[in-house]
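Mods, move this if it's the wrong board.
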Amino acid sequence: MADGPKCKCQRCMVCGLMWPVVLISIGLLFLLGRLHWEYSFHRLWPVLLIVMGILKVAQAMASTEGHVSS
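Not the wrong board. Structure tokens:
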């Protein structure tokens, strides 16, 4: 199985963080609900949209210097 060269530009690195950060955010929101904190997932789910938006803005502002297209 020959994988092509992996891109190490900043934009691709930020893009690769999207789903891990979303999954961690979901886990934290459910944890807050389990700890009987005043706010739980059903009230804080818009935080996921904010996190995704921040990552998209960071991706758009990141440099593409050294980008390797696949």
